[in-house]
Amino acid sequence: MPELPEVETIRRGLEKRIVDRTITDIEIRYPKTFQGNGGKVANNRVKSTERRAKVLAIRMNNSYNLLFHLKMTGQLIWRAAQLRSSSSAEPRNQDFSGGHPDHNWHADLPNSTTAVVFTFDDDSKLFFNDLRKFGWCKVLSDEDLSKIFDTEYGLEPFDQNFTAEYLINKAKRIPNRKIKQFLTDQTIIAGIGNIYADELLFDARISPVRKVSEISEREWGKMVKSTIKILNLAIDQGGTTDSDYVNADGGKGGMQNYLKVYRKAGLDCPAKCGGKIERIVVGGRGTHFCPRCQN
DNA sequence: CTATCTGTTCTGAC
DNA sequence: TGTCAGAACAGATA
């Protein structure tokens, strides 16, 4: 799923692990996933990490970058060097001692979904897994990266300029678009996907099928506030783990425990308005809302 | 078994 | 230009 909060959580986890490390090897197990010349980043040092919308950049000290899009099932999991312990009874990883997820996240790495493996100079590794193989990793120059960041995405929700006025202005050109499709358009707002669009619309009590031309200035303002509130909560929770998402340490997020409408069809409205959550399709995407209190 | 669903986004037809 | 179906892929679920 990775939307903004999930990618940001991964970025924060990676940042503290790989900054100042040198990439010593890139193993490409699924060529379609890795685009560009890995030689441009190999044997160079990681300068920083950066997120824009749902993409994550690893910025190197030589003006080249790795840019990742995880699409729906991508994972970026960092692992410390495996100690060659004499006691082979030691568990390989401590990360999942607390529970058994319903998925093979704790399987040995690499596994059948691993597309690319990066090795660093401390023998730690970064595994890019992707079950459905929609995700990609590209090698880009600083210039190409800047161009993508500047031209392919709208405002970040945490930008000072992300206001009702900004959205009203954008909505003028596409008055007939339904608000949910508007909110998930990456060229308008960067980073909102299916889960958080449903959640923020519930928080703002606005129906996902409203036309953007029929939304009042007050309602746009509510959506701005709800967007920031929901995304902040989701980042605090380390993202939503619905099925495949894990953070950079391979752990689950906690936001799934705070979702109010996403995949809650048939349940009573959490606002206790007396309605029930419905699932409809908007723009080809499953959409969950309370038809009674979202207008 | 078949049919339908899934977090993203890109392309091509109209 | 805007909108829509379908594609890219590999499952899980009913």
Describe this entry's structure for a reader.
- This protein is of the alpha+beta class and 295 residues long.
- 23% of the residues lie in helices and 21% in strands.
- It has 6 helices and 11 strands.
- It has a 5-stranded mixed beta sheet. Strands 1-7-8-6 form a 4-stranded antiparallel beta sheet, with helices on one face. Strands 10-11 form a two-stranded antiparallel ribbon.
- The longest helix is centred in the last third of the chain and has 20 residues, at 217-236.
- The relative contact order is 0.16.
- It binds a DNA duplex (14 and 14 nucleotides) through residues 1-3, 6, 32, 54, 69-73, 113, 130-135, 173-174, 176-177, 184, 186, 193-195, 240, 242-245, 283-286.
- Radius of gyration (CA) equals 21 Å
Task: Give the overall shape, derived from the CA principal axes.
Answer: globular
Structure annotation, total helices: 6
Oligomer: single chain
> What fraction strand?
15-25%
Placed side by side, the strands forming the largest sheet appear as 2-9-5-4-3
**Which ranges are low-confidence, i.e. pLDDT below 50, for 5 or more consecutive residues?**
88-103
Find the structural class using helix and strand composition.
alpha+beta
Q: How many E strands? A: 11
Q: What does the main sheet amount to? A: 5 strands, mixed
Kindly, what is the distance between the CA atoms of the first and last residues, rounded to a whole number of angstroms? Answer: 27 Å
Helix content: 10-25%
